[in-house]
Design brief:
The complex is a heterohexamer, with 2 copies of chain A, 2 copies of chain B and 2 copies of chain C. Chain A is α/β, with parallel strands linked by helices. Chain A is built from 4 helices and 5 strands, in the order βαβαβαβαβ. Chain B has a 5-stranded parallel β-sheet with strand order 4-3-2-1-5, sandwiched between helices. The longest helix of chain B is centred in the first third of the chain and has 14 residues. Classes of the chains: A alpha/beta, B alpha/beta, C alpha/beta.
């Protein structure tokens, strides 16, 4: 299963709900305002660092760049993909679930 | 691979429409088929026929239309959700058609993947 | 419709995570669910997070001027849509028990709900 | 008391438009003046001219129009936000007019109260 | 100051942000999905009970009824108003602030 | 415009609580702020919660196809809009420091921000 999360973890419960429902080994792609969850040094960073051990976590690079953030700020274990990588993730997983 | 897309939000107010467009372009570039894009909830507003975004900003209505024209992507607007919000048969931006919710369920059945973009 | 005779039966899940009335998602998801009944698919409805509020008994929208669509949940079994799952933890956090709900449902733990989601072919959310 | 209203969201998708309407009706019933209702962001979609909500549901477009007609409430749609979303001068639901954002700031200055309804 | 909150406390941070910015003695009106914050027996009820001691907290009755809830379920110290009461609250306070 | 000569000067505050690009609010609030400059009012901008992300340096929207409107914040002082307040706690929770921001701002504690909000005549939020 590929889960997409597009909400800031500081504003909404979408990420938390995703993390508590996803099955071990699932892939999670953070897009739009969801990319803030991938940042280190925040109040939610420890939660994400722990999640990155149980899930394959990715962040959409164009959304990260738009928000003025770069790879150096990410929590360890989070990978960056572009729109083509997003398409590949969709192709690799039989089902996609959006947490809105 | 045959991919179906669901767009839940209108253009500009939420990023859903932008992200869906960028996803569709990348999928087409990689040789996948975008079998259908279904517009539901406020997503029907992507078919608004008389919008005129600022000239220094992107024109999402036109970009969707180009996707239909150049790649034959089937852009379907939900008739019921459209009527509630003023988007009607025969009066949409170019490239869109109006039909029922069954077209979304059909996309779920026929496509290898269904990806949702919303708020 | 072709697809009604295609013989393909997929596991569909409609995931409800939003409260009713504050936004239209609950109502328009329900319209989607009703249409899906015509396609002979294996339809599941999940109520998690604020979505559990959709099933609260005693909704009265008169003073709001909005339509009370909650009786429609009771009509779902007439469409052969009978797989309704409500999450135990979501109910508990919101002070609800199965007795508060409009319809009989199957109560799943969060872990069970996650496992069920993982079995689906198509997941639709709003 | 002179009250100004800001509506940030379109009809149906969010409750903001309903709540603003119910608030306006109650304020008028109590003898207050609704000096202006300003529609911004997706709020401009409350002025969509060709909507046709289901007959068993409320018609928010019509209810706003009645507020203008019966109580002389000034319903102003932001021109720039409207163009982005397909709501244009001379093509709105009855009772609405198109103007600039200055009309909102003016409402803030002139009114005793300004109340925002949004998402 | 009259603060209005229209979001569920289980879904978004609007109520929490309101409570942490409001000045002692301020009035808070819960409307739309915000009314869920007034319910007792929930994971957020203790926070609201404490808030009701520092602020004047009200809930919009029509929104409560629409959601199938009644006065008996409310946290102690929360008052119910109708749309007319909402108008009175706006008139009584020089400024309104919406937490969306 | 009448109101420009009315002599009434009110304390206006535009409260930014949302991140940029995911929704349009940040951009359209900014358009509102620019217009307000013509009315000679006492204009305040507050950045709290995810609103602090609006001021992050180095925004690059090319791959998104959206317009990067962040340079506009730098142009605000040309419109005599100089009262920008950023909340310390909101920045800290999000791993930001004043060095991350596009423009010089006044940093307020959450309590100070609440007190400032309480002094306003008109508060606009999105």
């Amino acid at each position: 299963m590929l889960h997409t999360v597009n909400k800031s973890p500081f504003e909404k419960n979408a990420l938390e709900s995703c993390l508590s429902h996803a099955v071990e080994g699932a892939s999670i792609l953070l897009i739009e305002d969801g990319v803030y969850a991938a940042l280190g040094g925040t109040s939610t960073a420890a939660r994400m660092a722990e999640a990155a051990k149980r899930f394959k976590v990715f962040v959409l690079g164009p959304d990260l760049a738009a928000r003025g953030m770069d790879a150096g700020r990410l929590v360890e274990g989070v990978g960056i993909v572009d729109y083509e990588g997003f398409v590949d993730l969709v192709a690799e997983h039989p089902t996609s679930q959006a947490w809105l | 691979m045959k991919i179906g897309i669901l767009v839940n939000e209108g253009p500009y107010n939420h990023q859903a429409s932008d992200t869906a467009l960028n996803f569709c372009k990348a999928a087409l570039a990689k040789g996948h088929t975008i079998w259908r894009v279904f517009f539901y909830y406020d997503g029907v507003l992507n078919a608004a026929p008389r919008a005129e975004p600022p000239t220094d900003d992107r024109n999402l209505f036109k970009q969707w239309g180009e996707l239909a024209e150049k790649h034959g992507v089937d852009l379907v607007v939900c008739v019921a959700a459209g009527l509630r919000r003023g988007i009607r048969e025969g009066d949409t931006a170019p490239g869109f058609r109006i039909s029922g919710l069954g077209q979304l369920i059909e996309a779920g059945i026929q496509c290898d993947r269904l990806v949702t973009f919303g708020d | 419709m072709d697809e009604m005779e295609s013989g393909v039966v997929k596991k569909f899940m409609f995931v409800n995570r939003k409260a009713p009335y504050g936004t239209i998602y609950a109502l328009e998801v329900l319209e989607m669910v009703l249409i899906s009944a015509a396609f002979d698919q294996d339809v599941h409805l999940a109520f998690v997070d604020d979505g559990v509020f959709q099933l609260k008994k005693g909704q009265d929208t008169k003073a709001l001027g909005q339509k009370n669509f909650s009786p429609t949940y009771r009509a779902l079994d007439g469409y052969d849509i009978e797989k309704l799952y409500v999450e135990a933890e979501s109910m508990a956090e919101r002070g609800l028990t199965p007795a508060d709900l409009l319809v009989p449902v199957e109560v799943l733990s969060r872990a069970e709900m996650g496992a069920l989601m993982n079995e689906m072919d198509v997941v639709l959310t709003a």
